[in-house]
């Protein structure tokens, strides 16, 4: 490590502000439409005076989000590519999630470590001890949360579609399935399989709409239930936990996996899909930094666990044929499957 390496870390929060401002103020969209503009032209189009325009462009260019040549600016090639193929819509939701849900509670990271709990939750009204129940008091943030969660999942769930082997599976129970984003994607890829999304009432009403919009209401049903307090509906040969077992403690995850085991028929399978950290203890960087959100906000013990921890819980519950399937993209998502 060099002292220069410290700069990105010391000012990491400022780096995010540059990305967020470039996005919110429409800089990247503008430069996509009109590349090679100078400071004055960019300021005029963004409605900014010269000083803030210079501050913004210095930051985005130092971070390689934009480039400058002879006083004229354009987007990094990657940003232009993502705007053109519309993956930028996913990135803008991820930025909105970080800015509106994660940013303030992150300031409680030190206290969250000291007290070994999600101290950042104090920034959301209510007395429930997880984020999802507190969001019910804030319909505006709840909508934003599920919209952004959908984008996080759209970014990574091609890995789920690619790795989840649903051969012979007829009915999948998607536990904590959110607005149905993964059930919809999997249903499109597996035309003979039916899905049930089980989630809290706020998510379920969004899921109904999304499923109807995608024309899949006949194959995807929704159930409003609490994944801990309520028993799981029966008759499923696959239970999916997508971005779910990152929220809870090892003991709670054992409870959920036991419930899945009980609900499955003999030979049924469970799929665990989410971002994983490495057992080596030094990365990947995505998992290491995303853990700040998990440590401060969703629930008391949320963690991006490493692969081996899931495998240990699965075998202790009684599952066999445990199979680890990492994705091969820039996010550390992967699927672990196992059989009852
Ligand atoms: C991180 S989100 C993942 C959503 C979806 N599976 C995905 O991958 O996009 C966690 C989901 O679990 C749901 N959830 C949390 N606690 C729950 C509970 N006690 N009962 C039912 N659903 C719950 C939340 O409402 C949310 O939709």
Keywords:
340 residues; Arc Repressor Mutant, subunit A; alpha/beta; 15 helices; two-stranded antiparallel sheet; globular; Rossmann fold; binds S-adenosylmethionine
Structure commentary:
- This protein folds into two domains: 3-85, Arc Repressor Mutant, subunit A; 92-339, Rossmann fold (3-Layer(aba) Sandwich).
- The chain is built from 15 helices and nine strands.
- It has 340 residues and is of the alpha/beta class.
- The longest helix has 25 residues, at 139-163.
- A seven-stranded mixed sheet has the order 5-4-3-6-7-9-8, sandwiched between helices. A two-stranded antiparallel sheet has the order 1-2.
- Helix 12 links the parallel strand 4 (194-199) and strand 5.
- The model has no long low-confidence stretch (mean pLDDT 97).
- The protein is 50% helix and 17% strand.
- The structure holds S-adenosylmethionine.
- S-adenosylmethionine (SAM) is lined by residues 132, 149, 153, 176-178, 181-182, 199-200, 203, 226-228, 242-244.
- S-adenosylmethionine is lined by residues 132, 149, 153, 176-178, 181-182, 199-200, 203, 226-228, 242-244.
- InterPro entries: COMT-like, COMT_C, SAM-dependent_MTases_sf, WH-like_DNA-bd_sf.
- One of its GO terms (molecular function) is methyltransferase activity.
- Residues 131-319 form the O-methyltransferase C-terminal domain.
- It holds the Pfam family Methyltransf_2.
- This is Methyltransferase.
């Amino acid at each position: 490590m060099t002292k220069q390496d410290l700069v990105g870390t010391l000012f990491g929060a400022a780096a995010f502000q540059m990305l967020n401002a470039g996005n919110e103020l429409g800089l990247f969209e503008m430069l996509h439409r009109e590349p090679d503009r100078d400071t004055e032209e960019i300021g005029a189009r963004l409605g900014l005076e010269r000083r803030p325009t210079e501050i913004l462009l210095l930051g985005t260019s130092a971070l390689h989000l934009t480039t400058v040549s002879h006083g004229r600016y354009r987007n990094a090639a990657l940003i232009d590519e993502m705007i053109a193929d519309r993956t930028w819509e996913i990135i803008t939701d991820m930025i909105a999630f970080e800015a509106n849900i994660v940013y303030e509670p992150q300031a409680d990271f030190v206290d969250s470590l000291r007290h070994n709990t999600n101290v950042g939750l104090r920034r959301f009204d209510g007395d429930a001890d997880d984020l999802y129940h507190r969001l019910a008091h804030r319909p505006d943030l709840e909508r934003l949360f599920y919209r952004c969660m959908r984008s996080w999942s759209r970014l990574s769930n091609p890995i789920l579609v690619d790795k989840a082997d649903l051969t012979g599976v007829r009915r999948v129970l998607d536990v904590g399935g959110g607005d149905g984003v993964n059930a919809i994607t999997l249903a499109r890829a597996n035309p003979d399989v039916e899905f049930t999304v089980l989630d809290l009432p706020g998510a379920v009403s969004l899921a109904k709409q999304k499923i109807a919009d995608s024309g899949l209401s006949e194959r995807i049903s929704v159930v409003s239930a609490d994944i801990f307090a309520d028993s799981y509906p029966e008759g499923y040969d696959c239970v999916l936990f997508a971005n779910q077992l990152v929220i809870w403690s090892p003991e709670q995850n054992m409870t959920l996996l036991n419930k899945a085991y009980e609900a499955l028929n003999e030979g049924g399978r469970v799929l665990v899909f989410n971002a994983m950290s490495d057992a080596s203890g030094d990365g990947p960087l995505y998992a290491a930094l995303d853990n700040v959100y998990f440590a401060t906000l969703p629930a008391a013990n949320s963690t991006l666990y490493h692969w081996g921890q899931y495998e240990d819980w699965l075998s202790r519950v009684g599952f066999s044929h445990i199979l680890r399937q990492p994705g091969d993209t820039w996010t550390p998502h992967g699927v672990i499957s196992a059989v009852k």
